[in-house]
């Protein structure tokens, strides 16, 4: 009989753990001002409330988010982050005996959650420079996609996603973690398709990565099925109150989104001018390609700019979070200087 050790996998470690520099690898919102967080914590309420159990279904928080999204609260399941929701979805796939399709490249946690549960899955390669779903090669019972996609930054056309939904998969999960930056969402489609579940995060545009707040959105039967596999009291009291406070302070978030989109365009142009190949993005990050990606990653880190690197087919690519000024200008200057150094080094 196998023991728990047979389930052991390489533990997750934060990139650049212990390194000093600008965190341009996690796609955190770097535009929200400190006063936003001060106001958030002023609204946390009586600290003694932490003593008690409360609201096992997170209904008060669900109602607040439902009002914000203009949907029914029973169409929402809250959990400590999108990753926790992915665990629930992977559990559902295991229980129901599904085979899952995860078009690649995309967010690596989909693979991790499925593999840990030994759920069979396939990773058909995205077409057209990793920007188009390979509809004819997507097989199985369920599909997980990300739009805007991480790490490429593109969104999938609505008609393409609808074609996917019309093919009769038991479940199509669309991870919209970065949708706030895209200015578009498939939220209205949850009323049309009972096999659609959207995932939304408060870690990115809303700047609450440390609070771990994620939401699954779908028709009531689908959400009820996922909730049956979730834990009661799944979202801590402090996270629920931070969510409520953030919704009250959404003007800070909306302003930061506008600033991020504007800076994203400047970053894209700057990357082109520096001589690397950026991918058009609707998220708060840009993926770019360079022959010297590995060298750039290390040399930029030594200059205080910590980016996300990749291995395998993505090995010639780096991903950079969109930063505010003057970090943006400093990064672009460091990139140009580093490229000149690397090219000079390999020239000899």
Please provide a written account of the structure.
There is one protein chain. With 348 residues, the protein is an alpha/beta fold. It folds into two domains: 18-32 and 251-347, Aspartate Aminotransferase, domain 1 (Alpha-Beta Complex), CATH 3.90.1150; 53-248, Aspartate Aminotransferase, domain 2, CATH 3.40.640.10. 39% of the residues lie in helices and 14% in strands. It contains eleven helices and 13 strands. It has helices spanning 34-42, 59-69, 82-96, 108-116, 158-166, 179-182, 220-228, 237-248, 250-274, 293-302, 327-347; strands spanning 22-23, 76-79, 100-101, 121-122, 142-146, 171-175, 196-201, 214-218, 277-278, 285-289, 305-306, 308-309, 317-321. The strands form three sheets. A seven-stranded mixed beta sheet has the order 2-8-7-6-5-3-4, sandwiched between helices. Strands 9-10-13-12 form a four-stranded antiparallel beta sheet, covered by helices on one side. Strands 1-11 form a two-stranded parallel sheet. A hairpin with a 6-residue loop joins strand 9 and strand 10. Helix 2 (59-69) runs parallel beside helix 8 (237-248), helix 9 runs parallel beside helix 11 and helix 10 (293-302) packs across helix 11 (327-347). The N and C termini lie far apart (58 Å).
């Amino acid at each position: 009989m196998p023991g728990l050790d047979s389930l052991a996998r390489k533990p997750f470690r934060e990139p650049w753990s212990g390194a000093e520099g600008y965190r341009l690898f996690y796609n955190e919102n770097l535009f929200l001002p400190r006063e936003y967080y001060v106001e958030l914590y002023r609204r946390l309420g009586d600290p003694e409330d932490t003593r008690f159990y409360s609201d096992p279904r997170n209904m008060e928080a669900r109602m607040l988010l439902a009002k914000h999204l203009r949907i029914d609260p029973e169409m929402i399941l809250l959990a400590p982050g999108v990753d926790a929701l992915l665990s629930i979805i992977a559990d559902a796939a295991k229980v129901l005996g599904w085979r899952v399709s995860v078009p690649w490249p995309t967010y690596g946690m989909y693979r991790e959650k499925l593999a840990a549960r030994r759920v069979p899955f396939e990773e058909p390669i995205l077409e057209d420079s990793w920007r188009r779903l390979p509809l004819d090669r997507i097989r199985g019972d369920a599909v997980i996609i990300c739009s805007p996609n991480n790490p490429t930054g593109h969104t999938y056309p609505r008609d393409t996603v609808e074609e996917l939904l019309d093919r009769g998969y038991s479940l199509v999960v669309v991870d919209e973690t970065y949708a706030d930056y895209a200015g578009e969402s498939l939220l209205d489609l949850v009323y049309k398709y009972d096999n659609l579940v959207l995932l939304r995060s408060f870690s990115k545009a809303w700047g609450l990565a440390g609070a771990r707040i994620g939401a699954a959105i779908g028709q009531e039967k689908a959400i009820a099925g996922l909730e049956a596999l979730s834990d009661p009291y799944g979202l801590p009291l402090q996270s629920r109150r931070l969510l409520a406070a953030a919704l009250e302070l959404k003007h800070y978030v909306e302003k930061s989104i506008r600033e991020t989109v504007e800076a994203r365009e400047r970053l894209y142009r700057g990357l082109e001018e520096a001589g690397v190949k950026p991918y058009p993005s609707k998220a708060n990050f840009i993926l770019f390609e360079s022959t010297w990606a590995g060298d750039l990653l290390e040399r930029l880190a030594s200059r205080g700019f910590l980016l996300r690197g990749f291995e395998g087919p993505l090995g010639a690519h780096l991903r950079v979070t969109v930063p505010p000024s003057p970090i943006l200008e400093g990064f672009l200057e460091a990139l140009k200087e580093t490229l000149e150094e690397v090219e000079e080094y390999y020239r000899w």
